[in-house]
Description:
Elements: E1 16-18, E2 25-27, H1 46-70, H2 78-105, H3 108-129
Antiparallel strand pairs: 1-2
Helix pairs in contact: 2-3
Amino acid sequence: MDKPKKESLLNQNPDSKICLNCGFPNRATDSNCMYCQTSLVADSGLISWCRQTYYILRWRWQLKQKRETTHKPDRMPVFKAVGYFLVGAVLSGVGLYLFTEAVSKNSFSKGLIAILFLFYGVFTLKGLFVKK
């Protein structure tokens, strides 16, 4: 796979301007930034060139940071995982207990409620252990 060409800061694309306030790229014909609505009238001089170069580099760094963070797998915090496990185990346990009680007393409605508890507990545990 070919690597994308790196654009030089000195040889910018002539049909785009970088906002000096937020660093958002705009069309060359725009007079105001599309993101923050500040004026895009370019000042000439070394200080404005340095500031514009800084905003270009900051904009590219922010884009790179967002791209790199999307590749990292999300990890569930320990307390949240323990909470899900406890809720799933309690629901499954209550469901099993109610199901055995319903079978021993031949109660259909209690059996349905027990199966509902059991399914909620199993699905909670499944959501904890199965990766999406």
